[in-house]
Specification:
3 helices
């Protein structure tokens, strides 16, 4: 979604508006990740905590979700 936002911004908008759009997207993603992690932690407890230690929240590394 971020790449689509940047591509669209480059095609039909100026750099200032694109910068604002990327900032709003980043803030919204951070808030969503925090809310989702709270719900997952409540549902799965220590199992999710172990998973969260291995796998980054936003951009997973290759092979990071293996047990």
């Amino acid at each position: 979604m971020l790449i689509m936002l940047i591509a669209t911004g480059l095609a039909i908008s100026g750099p200032a508006r694109l910068a604002v759009a990327v900032a709003v997207f980043t803030l919204g993603t951070a808030l969503r990740v925090r809310a989702e992690e709270t719900l997952l932690r409540a549902a799965f407890g220590s199992t999710f905590d172990a998973y969260a230690k291995r796998v980054p929240a936003v951009v997973p590394r290759p092979g990071s979700n293996r047990a």
